[in-house]
Amino acid sequence: METFEDYLATIDVPEHRERMEYIFEWVKETFPQLEQRIAWNQPMFTDHGTFIMGFSTAKKHMSVSPERAGMIHFDEVLEQGGYDYTKQLVRFKWSEPVDFSLLERMIAFNIEDKADCTSFWRKE
Predict the structure, then answer these.
(1) CB–CB of 92/100 below 8 Å?
(2) pLDDT truncated to tens, each residue of the chain (124 aa)?
(3) Cβ(10)–Cβ(38) under 8 Å?
(4) Is the Cβ–Cβ distance between 27 and 53 less than 8 Å?
(5) CA–CA separation, 111 and 52 (whole Å)
(6) What pLDDT is recorded for position 123?
(7) Number of alpha carbons in the 13 Å side-chain half-sphere of residue 74
(8) Cβ(81)–Cβ(106) under 8 Å?
(9) In what order do the strands lie in the sheet with 50-57?
(10) Cα 93–chain centre separation
(11) Among the CATH numbers 3.40.930.10, 3.40.630.10, 3.30.1360.130, 3.90.1150.200, which is that of 4-113?
(12) Of 10, 27, 31, 32, most Cβ neighbours within 10 A?
């Protein structure tokens, strides 16, 4: 798998594939400086070679991962908002709308927080 299109082709449920395609387009339009990359069989966006946000899909949800530091930064927001999340990712159920405001804030945080980062992952 080399492109986002390759990844999208692996999603069997048409509605899920369309939603992911929409999300990827939204990220590209909202943050045009970000680059697309497939790594570990997952689509992710990077900035100057550093990880910003990864995406994955499952039967009941899609997930976003802003790295652990991004999760810690938004822990209170996630808790208060009743989001389904772990130490590494936030799950958005297919049956519910995606919170684009939260997604935008998470991506913007990582871009700013990692502006001087010279490695792919944070050195936590």
Answers:
(1) no
(2) 789 999 999 999 999 999 999 999 999 999 999 999 999 999 999 999 999 999 999 999 999 999 999 999 999 999 999 999 999 999 999 999 999 999 999 999 999 999 999 999 988 6
(3) no
(4) yes
(5) 6
(6) 81
(7) 28
(8) no
(9) 35-39, 42-47, 50-57, 61-65, 90-93, 84-85
(10) 14
(11) 3.90.1150.200
(12) 27
Task: State the pTM of this model.
Answer: 0.94
As a residue count, the chain comes to 124
Quote the pLDDT of residue 2.
87
Please compute Rg for the chain using Cα positions. 14
Residue found under tokens 């871009």:
111
Where along the chain do its domains lie? 4-113
Which residue bears the tokens 């680059």?
35
Q: Which residues pair with 90 in a beta bridge?
A: 64, 85
